[in-house]
Amino acid sequence: MADPEQSPLLPSSTDSTSATSLPTVSLYISHALSTWNSRVFEYAAVLFLTEIIPGSLAPSSWYALGRAGSVIVASRQIGNYIDSSPRLPIIRKSIVYQRIAVIISCGILFLMLRASVNVLHAATPGLVFSLQSELLIVLIFLACIERLAAMMNLIVVERDWVVVIAGGNIPLLTKLNSQMRRIDLFCKMVGPLTISLIISFTSVKFGIWVVLVTNLLSVGIEYWAIARVYHRVPTLALKTPQSHRSLSPSNTSVQAVRRSFSSWLTPFVEWSRHAMFLPSLTLSLLYFTVLSFGGQMIVFLLYEGFDTAHIGWLRTLSVILELSATFSAPWLMSKIGAIRTGRWFINWQSVSVVFAVVFFCYFSDRVGLWGLIAGVILSRVGLWGFDLAVQVQIQNGVEETKRARFSSTETAIQSIFDLLSFAATIVCADPKQFKIPAIVSAAAVCISAVLYSVYVYRAQKL
């Protein structure tokens, strides 16, 4: 029986990388486990916090705000570290750091859950609330570590390893991107649905145990699988670490602060001057949204009377449509190219979110709510098709020596917009005010579509 690792991705190619056997199974196993754990914990943490501290959007918003803020602050350091280090040690560290952060977070959630039960019987409930607040701060700190490790893993695999494995073969690169995205969407569909059903039919405590045990069991397999990929693709070991200029000693603290700020700002300036700036910016702007079945919308739907199982099924339907984009986008790119494909999908998303918000604002009853849900679900096809089209452009348009730096900066920009979306629900913490961030989200998508049209116009003139 043939080793599944020996199956070539394409039947034939002039490129040596695609003509040889590739360890695709190991690559997909590692990515699937990493994505599953990340998606489940990201979704479950919102459900856990909502159950432990009910009645407000603020706790989950502060939690997500901290995650996004950590990326903004540490993006330069992460990018420089990836560029200046060998590939295998980086990704192994990202796996271990991510799992340790989640495991400790589960312990903190157990303590918060116990405190939420004790508050009902406490003689001094104020002390219990204070304890919960302190534990929430620790949880946010751990979430920052988990987010940075996940970011490191994502940049290394999707923006570097996949490009090196493809070896300049565009059809192979598109195929790898699509398969990785399908894995991501499958985990996004099945993972949250699974944890939602577990919580619905058992308890929050049992759900926390499931997340903890899953992370414990998967770390060794991830560690082994990614090493197998590295050793089976010799070109991954050929990376030449890039050194980045460090800050020179300063005579005054004021000069030190200025130099530090200038150093932090430099990658953003480089990113804004790169040829791939506009497509990167338009993709990043889409992170300024509450219309995504993310934390804010989940809390809003729970407030409106949906239970976790119903939300899980709605999210599953959304992901099924998102998966369709991983088939339609590569096909369309093969017909009209990545740039024009991106325009089709961003326009689809714009029309869908405008429909959703108009329905939601015009109808105040259940009809408006279901119109919102339907529009959001339809918009996800446009989002993921656009994501794939832009990713191919960026992978081919950014130099190898700048991939990590560019990608980490792009992730920081995405986190800024993500942060703004959570800031909107902190300001509008009452679920009755959800229409305001929903309108702002739709406006962000429309602005993104306009900016991408500018990019397409410029590209056609070249």
Automatic annotation (TrEMBL):
This is Solute carrier family 40 member. It comes from Nadsonia fulvescens var. elongata DSM 6958. It comes from the Eukaryota. CDD domains: MFS_SLC40A1_like (cd17480). It is a multi-pass membrane protein. GO terms for molecular function: iron ion transmembrane transporter activity. One of its GO terms (cellular component) is membrane. It is found in: Membrane.
